[in-house]
Amino acid sequence: RVKNRSKNDYEFFDREMKISNQRAFQIKNDLRMGLENNQFYMVYQPKVSPEEGIVTSCEALIRWKHPDFQEISPGEFIPLAEELGMINDIGDWVIENVCRQLQQWESLGYDLLPVSINLSSSQFLQVNFTEKFWSHLQTYRVHPAWIQIEITESLFIDNMKYVQQILETMKEQGIKVALDDFGTGYSSLAYLQKLDLDILKIDKSLIRGISNVSTKKEIATTIVQLGKSLGMKVVAEGVENKDEMEILCRYDIDEIQGYYYSKPLTVPAMSEILKTKKIVP
Ligand code: C2E
Ligand code: MG
Ligand code: MG
Ligand code: MG
Fold this sequence. Notes:
By secondary structure, the protein is an alpha/beta fold. The protein is 51% helix and 19% strand. α1 crosses α2 and α3 (87-107) packs parallel to α5. The longest helix has 35 residues, at 2-36. 31% of the residues are buried. This is Bifunctional diguanylate cyclase/phosphodiesterase. Residues 24-278 form the EAL domain.
C-alpha cells in the first residue's frame, strides 16, 4: 500500500513538474517578445508614514500582461529572466520606465515622492549597469533624490568590495539604498554594519501573523532596533490589517507598505495619490 501510494505521489509530482516546466519554458521563450511588444508595465505601491498618516514614498513593481497566461507575477518571471540573462534588459526597461514616469509627473505639476526600484543582483553586477542607470536619469532629467534602489543580501555574497564601491558612488549622488526582504536570508549583523545603507525593509513573511506569533514580534522589534541603531529608516512590507499596523507603530517604524493601506496602483491611481498624499486604510 505504501509502495503504491508513493508511486501515485510520484506520478502526480511528475505530471505537475511537466506542467510547470512547460509553463516555465514558454515564459522564458516569451520574455523577449513581451519586452518588444510592450506587454510589461509598472505599478506603484504607496508607503505610508504611520506618524503623519500620509504617503511618503512608493515602490515601483513590474507587471506582465501575457497574451495567453494573462497576468504573470514577477515572483514567477523575474527568476526565469535571471536564468536567461534577460534580467539586464528587463531591469534596464524598468529604470527607464520609472524615470520617464517621474519626468511626466513632474511636467504635469505633481509634487513628486521618492520611488524605489528593485534591482536584481545579477543586473546590478553587470559591468555597464551604473552607466545605463545614470544615462536614464540624465535623459529624463530625474533628480537622484527621487530614486531609491532596493537590493537584497544575495548581492553581497562574493562581491562585498565591488558592491560597496558602487553603492558609495550612488549614495554620494543622492540615491537612497534600501535592503529588501530583511529577515529571510543571512541577515548578518557584520555586513549590515559595514555597508552604511539608508533603509531596512522587514520582509512580509515576518509581518504576516505578527499579531499572534510572539517570536515574530520579538524578531521584528529586534530588527527595528538594529536598523535604528545603525541610523537606518525601517520599513515594514506586507502589512495587511489594523492589528499588524498597530503593533508596528508601537515599534516606532518609519514607513508601512501593504494591502492595509494600498495594493500596488496603476499610474492613474498613483497620480491621484500624488495630488493629496492622503490615503484611506
Ligand atoms: P519585493 O520587492 O519584496 O516586493 C514586495 C512584494 O509584496 C510585491 O509583490 C508586492 O505586491 C507584495 N505585497 C505588498 N504588500 C503586500 C501585502 O500586504 N500582502 C501581500 N501578500 N503581498 C504584498 P510583487 O509585485 O508580486 O513582486 C514580487 C517580487 O518580484 C518583488 O518582491 C521583487 O523581488 C520582484 N520584483 C517586482 N518588480 C520588480 C522589478 O521591477 N525588478 C526586479 N528586479 N524585481 C522585481
Ligand atoms: Mg522590493
Ligand atoms: Mg521586499
Ligand atoms: Mg520580497
